Amino acid sequence: MNQTTPPDAASQAHPEGRRLREIESEQRVVDLAYGELDRQLARARRSLAATEARGADGTHQSRGERDAYAVHYSSLISSLEGVEDRLVFGRMDINPESAKAMGASSSPVTDSGRRHYVGRTGLQDERHREVVLDWRAPLARAFYQATAANPMGLVRRRHIETRARRVLGVEDELIDVGALDALADGRGPAGADHGLQGEGALIAAMSAARDGRMGDIVATIQGEQDRIVTSPGTGVLVVQGGPGTGKTAVALHRVAYLFYSERARLERSGVLLVGPSRTFLRYVEQVLPSLGETGVVSTTLADLVPGLRARGVEPAAVAEIKSRALWAGVLERAVRDLQRIPDSPRPIEVQGTVLSLEPDDVREAVSRARRSGKPHNLAREPFVLWLLERLTDQYAAATRQDASDADTRAWIREDIRTSRDARREINLCWMPTTPAGLLERLWARPDLLERLAPDLGAQERQMLVRGPGAELTPADVPLIDELHELLGPSEDAQARRARLEARRREELVAYAAQAIEAQDLGGGMVSAEMLADRVADSGPHLTLAERARADRTWTYGHVVVDEAQELGAMAWRALARRCPLRSFTVVGDLAQYSGRSAPSSWGEVLTALGTGGRRAASRSAGRGRAQGSTPLREEALSVCYRTPATIMEAADRVVTALGAPPVFPVRSVRDLPDCLSVERLEGGEGLDEQDWGQALRRAVAAECAGLDEAAGPGAGRIAVISPQAPRDASLLRADEALAAAMEAPGGDVLRSRVAVMGPVMSKGLEFDVVVLVDPAVIGETSPGDLYVAMTRPTRRLRVISRAGLPTGLDPS
Ligand SMILES: Nc1ncnc2c1ncn2[C@@H]1O[C@H](COP(=O)(O)OP(=O)(O)OP(=O)(O)O)[C@@H](O)[C@H]1O
């Protein structure tokens, strides 16, 4: 078991004195580490200031270099600032033989390599001697993975608890009893045989009141988690397991680990993190910066395409139809459908001469343009050019001109190109269009849909029909992305971009002219144009993440997808395009799928990544290679850190009774007394709104009071998860105190003490307390959603129901 610091003869008599001495001694090391952090931060800030002071002068190349340095120093500063909190959290004592074998060099803190301090980042002193070992360093693996059965050279693991640069306590685990004598300070506590590493620190982390933001787990990563965090970044890795097993936490730490182990590659390409909702992304946004990493772009699928807003809502059944793989073919056909060969010759009048657009010529032009391999809008140019050449020949013959020289041909071509007939007829054969325009046409024209998507049933097609001008929905976004690939930029878009650039330059020139005049700059040596060029060149300093986010065609070095069981084939295709290397961390739990028919395997979910259709892995070890070109590995986590055992067991019973049992049953690390209460209201479904409102307010107010008592006044977070969230939210607001507790600064529900949401919105989140409304209603449409809703609390679940209770939940 864990104890605080090893007892020796003196400490038997004065254990408190011994504890204080240990704390004091660790404080000296922690002071040294923060001193080093401060020194490095000050140096980076000075370098940034010096770089910026160099101004916008110099050659194009030197301005580019200056910008690159500025971005580098800014990121370095953010990284160093990010690791301030709990900079050092662990110490490893290594047996002398292992230390010698590792050949570790000595430093003021390492005791000839026999002692290492583990922290959020690696720090060395000015003489390049180790002060803090980065938690991702190979040597630090023993801190997370060593057990009594496999000590990995570790004699003792120490967790150091700090707050705001002060050491508050230490917690020791003895790993290798046999090696203890070899250590300078002799004896230690009994060996660790509980299977959890740093149990005290772990339980403390889990018991702390939630504050609406996920914290990192770097100080308490467990062995099974660490093996996933540090597994190589190649291929597709599925991290699965029941609720609260740390899948999200592990995936985020894996990103930080990959930045460490493959920094050169990922610093150039960045990492994309895809989450189920903006709220979820806000929930996890602190984790990577707290590990010193900033090169991550996070997005929902709805926000995947820069500049596109998908604010429309539609039934889940419609979104499901849009997610199917068949759309790849349908959209391809829709684009080819814009390339038409007329049934008969079309007359074209050019300055009084009538030419004929021949179907055979159009056929040839179409096939040449398609052979160019360019997307539709870009292939239009070779298509038009080839037809214009044919029409030019016709015109020359009809007007008896010699069109053998380039200038004459160019004149004729221009006359044809600008004639109304030619424009109309050529457009009809090869219509330029935008992704949103084409999709709008598809939804608005059932006849078109029937022709292009014959595999859909008539009823399904009917469900897709939507009038022109309607808002795009999140499920439209992967289709739009696919269409971007098939269509390429439209002439309109290209022209718009050129116009914008021209306007921006005009503004810059005007601004520069004013500046020259106002400040009497230049002395005749600098023109407004020159100054405008410099301002444009020196532009804003964009970080990699900012550049990547704004560029739809950016390819990332690694992609993490959370709640991945929800993504359909079209979404995976969009993500596959963003990572041709197919380096993916796929996080999810098939049992938490929203809807009735969850996919049966990850192979089925991930077909679009080229992993083949077969799963080749088993439960925990679960490594294997699927048939297909992209290697697929599956790992499963088995310990729930979030939800008390009583609640977890109830959730398992309920979904099992609904015919959707957990894919991986999990073991909770703790249980709490009185953590589950279930109430079926008298009056049942016949209860009127007023009585229901009252009962709900009473329940939520009681939970607020209970949490005040358990965590301190106002501390902790409560979620009310209801199938009728908006209506229940307004009922709760009738109580002034609850309305105040529901206030969400900046619209961020995670900042409110009481958040009301539907079950889908609660995916991936966690709260101290959950008040769950009408679980049977949720379970009826989606057992997975009920599983999610029941497993969000860290302390307590209160069920309040008007409808009958689902099997497995009995009134308490
Ligand atoms: N090793 C650990 N040390 C401390 N806390 C941990 C550890 N592992 C997980 N946790 C905590 O457990 C909680 C659940 O983790 P996380 O959200 O990553 O689980 P999950 O498997 O993604 O859950 P779900 O599938 O329910 O969304 C979080 O508060 C996380 O910080």
From TrEMBL:
Region: Disordered, residue numbers: 1-20
Keyword ATP-binding in annotation: yes
GO molecular function: 3'-5' DNA helicase activity; ATP binding; DNA binding; hydrolase activity
One of the GO biological process terms: recombinational repair
InterPro entries in alphabetical order: DNA_helicase_UvrD/REP (IPR000212), P-loop_NTPase (IPR027417), UvrD-like_ATP-bd (IPR014016)
Pfam (any one): AAA_19
Broadest EC class assigned to this enzyme: hydrolase
Oxidoreductase in keyword set: no
GO cellular component: cytosol
PANTHER family registered for this protein in UniProt: DNA 3'-5' HELICASE (PTHR11070:SF45), UVRD / RECB / PCRA DNA HELICASE FAMILY MEMBER (PTHR11070)
Protein name, entry field: Helicase IV
Organism: Actinomyces slackii
